[in-house]
Amino acid sequence: MKEKIKITATELFLNLGFKSVTMDDIANEMGISKKTIYTHFNNKTALVNEVTSSLFCVISEGIDLICAAEKNSIEELYEIKRFVMEHLKDEKSSPQYQLQKYYPKIYATLKKKQYDVMQDCVKDNLIRGVHSGVYRDTINIEFISRIYFNGVTGIKDNELFPLKEFSMNTLMEYFLEYHIRGICTPKGLETLNKFITTNQSS
């Protein structure tokens, strides 16, 4: 039952937001009593903590598998973007922004874990990209990996990028192109243009 509650809560939180969804909403969605939820989770904060931790693990494992395939570095970034968007339901309710606003301690812990995982992944992507000739060999790996993380988290700021004007999927498309254009070689640009053309036609 605990796992079923987590799955339902995850769906509701991602689609409607961490703030909007109440324990009553989760109970009604599942057709169970609120008391049943409280036998597994002391309060909503505990449930949010479990949901975000589980989601983080699923996404991290998926990203690890994509990275292990050692595809072309540019292709890898697009594959990761697609995978993350799929699992976060395109972030229609800007969950990260709501998490930061209403559950700052959980957000801070999660951000630290995200940074640690992403640094390894992004640095590896950059190093392989340089070796394969799609990224310039003059880039500073440490700087680019940090600015990439800052950009990925920054575009989720709802005040800077209102969802009414930009969908999360669109923002990620823009950001990826912006990031790759800044570091790629003419060879890399050819690969990037293929992805831009494909995404525009799909």
From TrEMBL:
Residues 22-41 bind DNA. InterPro entries: Homeodomain-like_sf, HTH-type_Tx_Regulator, HTH_TetR, Tet_transcr_reg_TetR-rel_C_sf. Keywords: DNA-binding. It comes from the Bacteria. One of its GO terms (molecular function) is DNA binding. Residues 1-59 form the HTH tetR-type domain. This is Transcriptional regulator, tetR family protein. It comes from Kordia algicida OT-1.
